[in-house]
Specification:
Layout lengths: L1 H7 L9 H7 L11 H11 L1 E2 L1 H7 L9 H4 L4 E10 L2 H11 L2 E5 L3 H4 L5 E2 L11 E11 L3 E7 L11 E5 L11 E9 L7
Parallel strand pairs: 4-7
Antiparallel strand pairs: 1-2, 2-8, 3-5, 3-8, 5-6, 6-7
């Protein structure tokens, strides 16, 4: 969301409050359960609140603030989000609008990935899924086509926080499951004196 916001607003950054989502999304299977489509539905309805504003207003840990409390906060709404289900539509979306979100099955060798083109280790699958930001794609002369992904694990993981994930691996979700978001900023209106 931040990457797409920055790209569509000429380099301006917006840091959303993840705590706002955790405190306020009370839907069954929402934020706390990791269902990304449910999280984005919440954001479409309520928007993201700026992290700086949320931190300044926070009253009770774990409680959601009221709309009145958040009225003077800078926020970002989302026009919509869409699902992409082919390599060509994923590539086109990245090229035209910036990174997309996808999912990688967490095999043990992905957790300790350091460099090169990552190929799934079907013998050591871990529980759940890992959401990644797909930022591009490329081709290795020996290993073939790959996606360039960024995880949430920081710059010490992979190649400075990035990984090359092999395309066209049977059973891999990254080739045919991606999600794109379309942000819209709502500025705080200055009060006239």
């Amino acid at each position: 969301f931040r990457s797409r916001y920055c790209a569509s607003h000429m380099g301006q950054d917006f840091v959303p409050s993840t705590q706002h989502l955790l405190n306020c999304d009370k839907t069954k299977h929402g934020v706390r359960s990791g269902f990304l489509n449910k999280v984005l539905s919440f954001v479409k309805e309520h928007g993201f609140i700026a992290n700086k504003c949320w931190a300044a207003l926070k009253k009770d840990e774990g409680k959601c603030l009221t709309a009145k409390d958040l009225m003077n906060c800078d926020s970002v709404a989302m026009f919509d989000h869409c699902y992409l289900n082919t390599q060509s539509t994923i590539k086109k979306e990245i090229f035209m609008n910036g990174p997309v979100i996808s999912v990688v099955e967490p095999f043990r060798n992905f957790l300790i990935y350091e460099k090169g083109v990552y190929n799934f280790d079907k013998d050591r699958k871990m529980e759940g899924n890992v959401f990644v930001k797909v930022v591009g794609w490329g081709k290795d002369a020996k290993k073939g086509d790959y996606w360039v992904v960024e995880s949430t694990w920081g710059k010490n993981w992979g190649e400075n926080g990035l990984a090359k994930v092999k395309m066209n691996v049977k059973g891999s979700s990254i080739d045919n499951i991606a999600l794109a978001v379309h942000p819209k900023r709502h500025e705080v209106k200055e009060e006239s004196e």
